[in-house]
Amino acid sequence: MHRHHEPPYAGGDPARSEFVARDPESRIDDRLDNETSVDSVDEVPDDPEVAALYALVAERLKQAHARVHALHVSAEAKTALARQLLIVTETAKRDLPEAARRLSRFVHDLDEGRPPRG
Question: Could you give the CA distance from residue 32 to residue 108 in angstroms, rounded to a whole number?
Fold first, then answer.
């Protein structure tokens, strides 16, 4: 039970219009994507090859996450595999080619039926 005098929500009153869905069918995921779209030129790679590699790695990461989710293994094993994919995601922010190599090894290991190495 909330015993403090301030609202229990960090952002204020959830009944305010900014917290209410604009469309009853919309999901919070959809609103966040629309509200946080990349408008900054600094965040978009100038080189079309780099942009294409980012798109490829992002799509392959989504596919790898879906494959991990569909595996018939323990929750702990899925968590460990998802963490490895998060490491690939973080690596992509600093070293895109290395992230692509790590992701390729991860997927290859999944294809071969071996647990991916870190």
Answer: 33
Which residues fall within 8 angstroms of residue 62, CB to CB, at 6 or more apart? Answer: none
Question: Residues 6 or more apart from 10 whose CB is under 8 A from it?
Answer: none
**pLDDT tens for the chain, residues 1 to 118:** 445 454 444 445 545 444 444 454 544 444 444 444 444 444 557 889 989 999 999 999 999 999 999 999 999 999 999 999 999 999 999 999 999 999 999 999 999 988 777 6
Q: Is the pTM of this model over 0.70?
A: no
The tokens of 62 are what? 């989504």
Taken in order 44, 47, 52, 58, the sign of the CA dihedral is negative
The DSSP output letter for 24 is T
